[in-house]
Each structure stands twice: as structure tokens, then as C-alpha cells.
Amino acid sequence: MLASQLHVVSVFSNNRQWQSRIRLLREYIPQMLQAGVTLTLVEHTIGERDFALNPDDPILRHVRLFQLRGDARHENWMKEGLVAYGVRMLPEDAKYIAVIDADVFFQRPDWPLATLDMLQVHRVGQPWSYSIDLGPDQNPVPNEWGSTVDRSFCAAWLAGDVNVPTPDYSGQMTYGWGLDPNRKKDTRAHCGYAWAYRLDVWNDIGGLPTWMVSGKADYVSAMAFAGKIPITQLQETGGGARRLKRYAELCDEFVKQDIGVVGGMLMHGFHGSKRKRYYLTREDILRESQFDPDIDLGVDRHGLPFIVSDNRKLRDGLRRLSTVRDEDANVV
Hints:
Elements: E1 6-13, H1 19-35, E2 38-46, E3 64-70, H2 79-88, E4 96-100, E5 104-106, H3 111-119, E6 124-126, E7 130-134, E8 140-141, E9 149-151, H4 153-158, E10 194-198, H5 199-205, H6 217-226, H7 231-234, H8 239-254, E11 259-261, E12 265-268, H9 284-288, H10 293-296, E13 297-299, E14 305-307, H11 312-323
Parallel strand pairs: 1-2, 1-4, 2-3, 6-11, 7-12
Antiparallel strand pairs: 4-10, 5-12, 6-10, 7-8, 7-9, 13-14
């Protein structure tokens, strides 16, 4: 197989004009091209702002660049919608894809071939097993849980540290055959950064959830792949619960908890303190605004979600969330 058979889809949206994001993107692109993958990059901007990328820039000579324009109603989290657009633009002969954040750097030179090899066996998986967050001085910094080295969700799954212990979840129960019952459980299980998929499986499940306007789709999709969505959560009412239930059903039917991993280290470039991402509390915006995707969201001509309701708590909460990230501050 050839590295070019792996189609990498990455996106760039920078409503707050953080300089750290464009710096990391310009470091990320050469890494992908040097690895030999086929890179599709989708950039989104708002209103009449200039795009950050110039299609005539030599750095983009071998990049499949798509540039989309929206308006102020697109201040919600749009990563998964942009990824979906990029996947729709892939060549007809594409079979294997990787969705990768444009601020990470692989340490294993042959990771594309290893990822393609993994996808011959598994339906989905992460092309990395361990990661390090870099600080502004390029030294490792502890993540939000105090770990200097994190572990991928898929590595945790294959180690038996992510399991489905009862039938009270969306997938089938897992079993502990071959695992040491006395081992100390490792709780590290990072759901983000980079995932790889067989394209037919991606299409069968409908890609990633695009309605999660405050983020967290990486986590939710990982839980759905593993069959770890609680049944009680799927029994809730409202548009969000209905969509989640359908997504969990599709993942159980087409992913079947068939999860792989590629061994290797990944570095995450610094763009502000992770404490200002509010990973654990940002869903409060959705609760306080009584967010319902069936009521609050529309879809534009590019297939991207945007706010259509007069839900000002939702609008202002999402704006505040993007502002407080302070990604140009060199403070850990």
C-alpha cells in the first residue's frame, strides 16, 4: 500500500484570529506532505474577512484546499461539519481516511502505512497510542488531569481499561479474558487529536455528530464506537437525545466495537492553556440555554450547522467560550 492512499482531512476555523493557530497550521502542513498522505484542508471564515491561507502559497501546492465563507451565525463549534464537507470532497477512489487536528505532530515516520495496515483489520481507530502536550517553551506540560504523557482512547480500549461491564449501555458487554485481574487500571483514555476510518464505515454511520455546538464530538463518538453510551442517556427526550440514540444505533450496527490503534507518540502543539478550554463545564452553556438542535440549528448550503433561533443565551455563551480560550497567551 502507499501512504497516499490515506486521505487526511483537517480543518481550520479561526474566528478570534489567534496567531498561534495559523502558526501551528503552517507547521502541520509540511509534516503531512512529507509523510506522503493525501491532504484535504477545509478553511472557514466569517463575513468579508480575508482567508488566512492563500491558494497560491507554495506550501499548499500539493494540498487539496477548500475555502468556505459563512456569517456571524456560524460562531458555534463547526469542526465536525467542516470535516464532513472535506470528506464529501474526497476523490471517488478514496477508501481510507484520517481526521486529524491541525496542531499535532507524529513522531513515528511510517504512521500513514501503519494506519492503513490497522484499517485492514479494524473499522476505526486512532493512529497514535501516547501523546504529550507541549508548552510555550516546547517542553512537556501536564494535561488537565495532571498527566505528562497521555494515552489514546483506543490504546486504553485494547488494554482492557475501557470496558462495557453491564448490558446498561448501547453496545455489547466486553469480557476480561487474558487480562490480569490484579492489574492497576490506567484511567488515561484521550478521545481526540486523530482518528482513522474505513470510508465505507464513515458513510454508514453518517460521519461524526455535527450538532454538538460546544464541542465534545470526539468524546461522544469514541463512547459510541465502544458501545459506552448509557441507556438512560438515550432515553432522554429532546432533539439531542434523539440524534444521539440514532448515532449510537448506527455505531453499534456498523462499527461493532471493532476498534484499533497504531503504536506511536504524538506531540500536541501549544495554543493557550488547556484550563481555559473548560472541557468539563462547557456543556453548562447547553443546559442553561435549553439547547435543542431541532429548534436552535439550521444547516447552510455547505452542510454546516449554524444558529437559527433567537436563543441569546446559547449565542452569547458560545461566543464567551471561544473568547476565554486566550490561545495566544504563553501561560500554561
